[in-house]
Amino acid sequence: MPASYRCPRCGQQVTTDMRFCPGCRSDLAVYQQQYQQQREQQRYQQPQQPHYPQHAYGGRPAYPVSRDETNSAMFCHLASLLGYLIPFSQLIIVLIIWSNNKDRSEFVREHSTEALNYQLSYLLYAFISGMAIFFLVGFLMLLALTIFDIIVSITGAMKASNGERYRYPLTIRFVK
Length: 176
What we know:
- It is found in: Membrane.
- InterPro entries: MamF_MmsF.
- By secondary structure, the chain is mainly α.
- The protein has two domains: 4-43, no CATH class; 67-161, no CATH class.
- It is built from five helices and two strands.
- It has helices spanning 29-43, 67-82, 89-101, 106-131, 138-161; strands spanning 4-6, 13-15.
- The chain has a two-stranded antiparallel ribbon.
- The longest helix has 26 residues, at 106-131.
- The chain starts with a strand and ends in a 15-residue tail after the last helix.
């Protein structure tokens, strides 16, 4: 008994022994070949594990986020750039936002905690790079660290503005 499938052009039910579709009169030879290949692949596939959703930090949160929350979270990330004009201001600003919002908004708490951990890690890396200046490698390390800081801060601000989660790379988790 021939197998049946739907015509890809018009959707009418056809069988593998038909040469032309009775609905749209299209040649079914090409489609039959594709259909046979798909059936062969399905026949020899290994059984798959059930798909379980995974928690991803790049995705949207499961709760609604207001514009005020996204602005506060975005400013946590952009405070890093303010630190180039006023030293240590980035750490103070993030600490203030974190302490004011840690119990009010889950979204702002996540972003401010992440930004706080990044700022502490950045200060540690900058201190190590400053010590390495005596070995003439520190200048390159500080330059690379500055470029890295600008890129990840802007990326974090963009993710926060879109209401998405963001985790800084190479960050030590001092604060949970």
